[in-house]
Design brief:
Elements: E1 5-9, H1 15-25, E2 30-34, H2 38-44, H3 59-66, E3 71-74, H4 77-83, E4 86-89, H5 109-121, E5 124-130, H6 138-156, E6 160-166, H7 176-181, E7 186-189, H8 193-204, E8 212-215, H9 217-248, H10 252-260, H11 281-294, H12 298-325, E9 334-338, H13 353-363, E10 367-371, H14 377-384, H15 394-399, E11 406-409, E12 423-426, H16 438-444, E13 450-453, H17 460-465, E14 469-472
Parallel strand pairs: 1-2, 1-4, 2-3, 4-5, 5-6, 7-8, 9-10, 9-12, 10-11, 12-13, 13-14
Helix pairs in contact: 1-3, 5-6, 9-11, 9-12, 11-12, 12-13
The structure holds uridine-5'-diphosphate-xylopyranose (2 copies).
Length: 477
Amino acid sequence: MKIKKICCIGAGYVGGPTMSVIADKCPDIQVEVVDLNEDRINQWNNEDFENLPIYEPGLAEIVKRCRGKNLHFSSLVREKIKTADIIFISVNTPTKKYGLGAGKASDLKWVERCAREVASYASGHTIVVEKSTLPVRTAEVIKTILQASTDSINSSSGIKTFDVLSNPEFLAEGSAVSDLLFPDRVLIGGENKKAIDALSNIYKKWVPEEKILHTNIWSSELAKLTSNAFLAQRISSINSISAICESTGADVREVSRAIGKDSRIGSKFLDSGPGFGGSCFKKDILNLVYLAKFYGLNEVADFWESVVNINAWHQSRISQLVIKNLFGTLAGKKIVILGFAFKANTNDTRESAAIQICKDLINEGAYLVINDPKVSPHQITNDLGMKQLSKISETESLNMYDGLGSWNYGENLDIEIFNDAYAILVLTEWPQYSSINWKEVAKKMIQPGWIFDSRSILDSEKVKNAELNFWRVGDGS
Ligand code: UDX
Ligand code: UDX
């Protein structure tokens, strides 16, 4: 099975960077990335490489090298399916909002639709690869749909055959390119050795062979969910310990460092923060919970659900302590929010802890000024479900206070942004926030001013020397 043409359905956070790296490493393969969303495709084809739809360090350079040569972005879904030797399904799989499994199970409508398109338009032998994270046994659904089409077509016209493989993606946002270039492992689940080898040969162009693992298809699907569940579990574990630290006088950074030295535990993913966000952790754990319940494993379901529950509790714990330290009321008080993305180095806000925390503060009547170097005001409006204040001045808005709070976009991180603020809350670990001059900031704030650092990125001595009150996550000292 020689691969000359790849088609990837879905030009999102996974499909875009993954296909760009494959194109860069395999100049003899034509890579076609297709998406129903024409705006997104236009953005990928943008003349200005700094304005691609996804911001990832190093990505623009790769797209610049390959686009128009062996990397193409278009909406010609059917046409590109037809000529592909291998098709990656990289469409989104959000949590179902209604019907059976609502709130937990993944909505597979897009995946099913892709499988039907592939079934109708593919020709000859095609390898279909599940790249999206999917519930265990989704490959069965895809196979059934593909099989139904081959049964009907092969009896009438030419031969059409398929192999289905699972090849989950482990890249993290913000480090997508380096995760793709130097993966800890590449996982390929499937049955047909020839198809597995064909996909492995693509990765072998830059990944050492011993890092390419072959498993059965269900293990591959489950390994992806389990991997995200374990990572999220570590964060919920350390965040739960942060609350104990604050109550007992311990310091969660010291606890993390001490336990991380144990090689059985390891030092990564032990940073306490405002609670995990991102498009995957919550969705994938809830998927696992749904799966466990489906098989009657209720205790297993409860165990994993508690990881999500602690995360929500931890976020509300942070909003509560802001309220408590500002004398139990935020009515008309200005609070500057530093960071809205779910982590640094991305413009993505999906499931960001900032969303719930900001909503809590607005519900308490606060006036938020939100700064983020990569997130647009339009995105924040969508996430908060609330337009920003317009036309009236800040002072007027505070005087007009009548219950629910409000917000504005604080585009520039200059000193004026802190004028008359009662508190500043760091929610994303953007490096520029660690070099703020707190002595200057203190002069602008209403006293007693509070700094809340949910990411532990500020120099506590500098903040305290500026005569500001300081809280940081898990610091009981
Ligand atoms: C990824 C994974 O694929 C998903 O399994 C994981 O759980 C979250 O991350 P991601 O790339 O982040 O998804 O999703 P997104 O950025 O929303 O991109 C998906 C793209 O697929 C969108 O651009 C959407 O327009 C496109 N799409 C969706 C299609 O082209 N066709 C469809 O039928 C459905
Ligand atoms: C995650 C997985 O890491 C990746 O393998 C998978 O393919 C997709 O899901 P991503 O969501 O992009 O990647 O980001 P990640 O770096 O894992 O961070 C997730 C969340 O956990 C962020 O909100 C981050 O701030 C938080 N986090 C991470 C912590 O609070 N503490 C840590 O120590 C690490």
